[in-house]
Design goal:
single chain; about 210 residues; mainly alpha; three-stranded antiparallel beta sheet; about 50% helix; about 10% strand; elongated
């Protein structure tokens, strides 16, 4: 009811209530959602459905018409949440990763979820990746078994005023961000999001580390 595919792009369509057609001067609201992804179009349409029904109610009050009934739940697009962990598991299954590769990715995934959370894959922004990078640069190079049960904040606090060496910039770039980039690129190519928040994040590596 609310979405229509046109020329590889999704459009939002919403009939205007009969009592308000004269107010809007048309019978339908229709515009491009500027996305080729059906999932993203569904997410955007939820926002517009709410916005226009609130607007319709306000205009009905202005013209003395009865308020509208809420949008039927059956007509609202169902959007399944696909988390970062969901994408990672799908990636492993499709790639048929070896035990070694899986362990390598698992370290990065656990650390990323521990710092940034396991959110819907579309919700991560560049700010999340920058926070992940900056947090890792404060992490100790070596963790004890006891550290594994601590939150990232407590680990950083524990080693803040010690001489323990920190995780190097080249490790953050090559071990963490490069593998994270692979996962987000996989999410993009499989239509889970439109772009990768990791793409433009850089780590300055001192020449000695290089």
């Amino acid at each position: 009811m609310y979405l229509q595919r046109r020329d590889y792009s999704w459009y939002f369509r919403l009939p205007i209530p009969k009592a308000l057609k004269a107010v809007y001067g048309k019978s339908e609201i229709c515009f491009s959602l500027k996305t080729k992804s059906k999932r993203e179009a569904q997410l955007k349409s939820l926002e517009y459905i709410h916005r226009y029904f609130v607007e319709f109610d306000a205009k009905c009050a202005e013209v003395g018409s009865s308020p509208l009934a809420p949008a039927p739940l059956a007509d609202i697009p169902a959007v399944k949440c696909v988390t970062f962990l969901d994408v990672y598991e799908k990636f492993l299954k499709e790639r048929q990763a070896t035990v070694g590769t899986e362990m390598e990715f698992e370290t990065v995934v656990k650390r990323f979820i521990g710092i940034c959370g396991n959110k819907d894959i579309t919700l991560y922004q560049k700010a999340d990746i920058l926070f992940f990078k900056d947090t890792l640069l404060q992490f100790p190079k070596y963790l004890t078994k006891e550290d594994l049960s601590l939150t990232p904040e407590r680990i950083i606090a524990k080693y803040a005023n010690t001489s323990s060496p920190k995780t190097t910039a080249i490790t953050v770039r090559q071990k963490y961000l490069d593998l994270l980039k692979v996962l987000f690129n996989y999410a993009v190519t499989n239509g889970f999001r439109l772009d990768s928040p990791v793409a433009s994040v850089k780590v300055i590596v001192p020449s000695k580390q290089e």
